Amino acid sequence: MPNPDNLGPVSKHVIEALEARKINGRNLARYPIPIDENDFHAYDHIIALSEQEHRPMLESRFNHQVDKIQFFEVGDLPIQDPKQAMNELSLLVEQLLNQLK
């Protein structure tokens, strides 16, 4: 069932970018799964895209946990071109992986 906070399933641009990187993105053609309180206990690291867009919503729901979230400032359509956004996101993920090593 769709979440009223999401406009639709994962963007076709995301799936195309994943597949260009040899990652199967077909199973992602679904609505995003919203974060819940259990995620803060189950995961060591939580990332959200676009602090400007998502912080207000996350603060309203998880005010006591929001400082545990790392934000990747990558804009969604129409703020940022999909190719540029996916390239920036790819670099941020690579940087994070290097930090976690």
Helices and strands in order:
Blueprint: H1 12-20, H2 39-42, E1 46-49, H3 51-62, E2 69-72, H4 82-100
Plain-language structure description:
This protein is mostly helical and 101 residues long. The protein folds into 2 domains: 1-33, no CATH class; 35-100, no CATH class. It is built from 4 helices and 2 strands. Strands 1-2 form a two-stranded parallel sheet. Helix 3 links the parallel strand 1 and strand 2 (69-72). The protein is globular and about 40 Å long. The N and C termini lie far apart (37 Å). The mean pLDDT is 84.
Give a concise summary.
It contains 4 helices and 2 strands; from the N terminus they run ααβαβα. By secondary structure, the chain is mainly alpha-helical.
Features:
101 residues, 4 helices, mainly alpha, globular, 2 domains, two-stranded parallel sheet, 2 strands, single chain
- Straight-line N-to-C gap: 37 Å
What is the count of structural domains?
Answer: 2
What value does the average pLDDT take? Answer: 84
User: How many DSSP helices?
Assistant: 4
Strand order of the largest sheet: 1-2
Inertia-based shape: globular
Compressed to H and E, one letter per element, the order equals HHEHEH
Q: Tell me the number of strands.
A: 2
Oligomer: single chain
Helix/strand structural class: mainly alpha
Strand percentage, roughly? 5-15%
Radius of gyration: 14 Å
Query: Helicity range of the residues?
Result: 40-55%
- Largest sheet features: 2 strands, parallel
